[in-house]
Amino acid sequence: MSLILLASFVFLLMPIFLLLYIRSYNRHKKNHVLEKQNMQQKFESEMLQARVEVQDQTMQSIATELHDNVGQLLSLTTLTLNSINLNDEGKAKKKIDNSLALVNKSIKELRELAKLLHGEQLVENGIGHAIDQEINWLNKAGTYELKINNLLIDLQIASPNKDLIILRLLQEIINNIIKHAQATHIQLDSYLTDNILHLRVVENGVGFNPEEIKSKKTGMGLNSIFKRIEMINGKLTLNSASGEGTSISIEVPYP
To answer: Where in the cell is it found (predicted)?
Structure first.
């Protein structure tokens, strides 16, 4: 008799446990969906921020180039033209030729700047070309001895979202070098092996203690780099020490 009662009790409890299980499952499923939505929103927000920062960086490069390069070329053209003495045909012709050369150089520089205005196009042409463009601007500064090994130029595959983040990472690294490193030599290697994109930047600057920077919470640029590499499931290795320069290696599953 007691066995029958126990069986009946268990039988009655089963629907309750089943309902509780279904309810828990649905709650877990709903939380999972919400979590995915939040992650997607966060990713899109970061992508938008990266896009804005790339555009800001591009506009800063254009402004600097207009002021320091094109502006100087046009000023020199004006000075040369103003100094022409038409009574001295030989010198006048030489100065006009020099002025034409300066104008042509200005036009060439302006065309390069026009390309930069299409910031998105940097990435559309592939991450290899975007890296190449950044290095060209760095090279124009004439401040650093550069050793570049960019093997991504002819890359036939692309990942637009990742490309944008990788480009922004490179810009952030270069900005940190310009602002803080006091380096004279920069080496960059980029290549793709086994569906992993590798980007490595090494400089011979003053170096720093990464743990000290993290503990002081002053390395906002460094924190931004780590945060973004995490977004694209990448891996970042940073080695630096006072007086020994810095190396940053990035690995990203690609495409």
So the answer is: Cytoplasm
Quote the pLDDT of residue 48.
73
Six token digits for residue 84: 């022409």
pLDDT tens profile 43-85 = 777 777 776 777 777 777 777 777 777 888 888 888 888 888 8
The rounded distance, in Å, linking the Cα atoms of 147 and 133 is 15
Give the pLDDT confidence of 86-113 residue by residue, as tens digits.
Answer: 888 888 888 888 888 888 888 887 877 7
- Strand ranges (E), the chain: 145-150, 185-193, 196-203, 235-240, 246-253
Contact between 231 and 165 (Cβ < 8 Å): yes
> Angle between the 127-140 and 2-65 helix axes, to the nearest 10 degrees?
40
Handedness of CA 129, 130, 136, 139 (dihedral sign): negative
Neighbours of 114 (CB within 10 A): 10
pLDDT-based confidence at residue 34 (cuts at 50, 70, 90): confident
CA distance 120 to 63: 18
pLDDT of residue 142: 76
The answer, yes or no, to whether the previous bond of 253 is cis (omega within 30 of 0) is: no
Token readout for 81 is 């033209």
- Angle between helix 160-176 and helix 2-65 axes, rounded to 10 deg: 60
Contact 234, 250 (CB under 8 A): yes
Return the SS3 of 184.
Answer: coil
Average pLDDT, the chain: 83
Q: How far apart are CA 121 and CA 115, in angstroms?
A: 8
Question: Which of the 8 DSSP states describes residue 57?
Answer: H
Backbone angles phi, psi at 104, to 5 degrees: -60, -40
